[in-house]
Amino acid sequence: MPTDFEEVKRKLLQTDEAFQQLATMHHDLDARLHDYADRHYLTEPEQVEEISLKKQKLQIKDQMESILRRHTGEREAAHAGRG
């Protein structure tokens, strides 16, 4: 059974343009990082870029989770008001 968090995420992916953009950016960074992970050797500039990509991906994930928490909190508050 999906959690409220997963349900809200699914809804945001369909309705929230900013969340969609963050999700796309996160996916793109993940793909680039997988390319680096598949290599046997990274040059020094590639290592620096890999670290930068990981930081960017984490920042985007934090932004997405903040939006999810805000929407999950709004939903919980709406349910509490009905009770």
Give keywords:
mainly alpha; about 80 residues; single chain
Distance between the termini: 23 Å
Overall pLDDT: 89
- Helix content bin: over 70%
The topology string of helices and strands comes to: HHH
Structural category is: mainly alpha
Strand content: under 5%
Describe, in plain words, how this protein is organized in 3D.
The protein is mainly alpha-helical and 83 residues long. The chain has a domain at 44-76. Helix content is 88%, strand content 0%. α2 packs antiparallel against α3 (44-82). The longest helix has 39 residues, at 44-82. It is elongated, with a radius of gyration of 17 Å. The model has no long low-confidence stretch (mean pLDDT 89).
In short:
88% of the residues lie in helices and 0% in strands. The chain has helices at residues 4-15, 17-38, 44-82.
Helix and strand arrangement:
Elements: H1 4-15, H2 17-38, H3 44-82
Helix pairs in contact: 1-2, 1-3, 2-3
